[in-house]
Amino acid sequence: MIMPEMSGGETYDRMKEINPDIKVLLSSGYSINGQATEILERGCDGFIQKPFTIKELSNAIREVLGS
């Protein structure tokens, strides 16, 4: 994940520090290999590959909120 101040992994870790119970759905245009897999292994609740449809996003959000 490419972001100006923090990597996706750093952002995930910071969000979990602020609220350990937060539900996180990771979205990336890159493959699930690499950093996305590492974040999922650390406890991220779900992953959705870009591009995605509104229906796919809605389903992924429901899955994450139901977990």
TrEMBL record:
Gene3D superfamilies, per the entry: 3.40.50.2300
Domain (Response regulatory) ranges: 1-65
Cleaved signal peptide residues: none
A matching Pfam family: Response_reg
GO biological process: phosphorelay signal transduction system
Protein name: Response regulatory domain-containing protein
Organism: marine sediment metagenome
